[in-house]
Amino acid sequence: xxxxxxxxxxxxxxxxxxxxxxxxxxxxxxxxxxxxxxxxxxxxxxxxxxxxxxxxxxxxxxxxxxxxxxxxxxxxxxxxxxxxxxxxxxxxxxxxxxxxxxxxxxxxxxxxxxxxxxxxxxxxxxxxxxxxxxxxxxxxxxxxxxxxxxxxxxxxxxxxxxxxxxxxxxxxxxxxxxxxxxxxxxxxxxxxxxxxxxxxxxxxxxx
Length: 207
Description:
Radius of gyration: 20 Å
Number of strands: 13
Number of domains: 2
């Protein structure tokens, strides 16, 4: 199936001509997307595969087993792409596919066992896309959260301490540093998160 034929297949059945697609995330990229908020998903190296067009709808999945983790729409490619979303100093590469997120479910993926994926990009029938999207349900209500990161730092001056703080944050990042979060006005409900998951920080509770 050629790229043009696949694109028509993805768009088939939509009155507005918008295509519907599935994009498969590598495991390491899924973890990176879970750790740091991004408005868009930028993928490179997609050669010899069907290519969604601007405005097409995309279901973002991870494999083994297949699960839906986000929805989005294809937007115009940006000029540059950083290979590692966690590392702002990583080399820049040309962007080949940019998906603007419209709904995220990274923490509670939806099973997608009935889908057959042909590779990193697969054209979906509109009915299959809608069935996946319907499983997500409405997005959770937005509320205010207090998020903090406390680091004991030895320094000669307050300014030095702040500089060291940001150095440690950039070096260790969300993979090693615990962040503490609680609903605004309910600090007693504070929880610690590491690697995007709740983590117990009380050693006495582990005994």
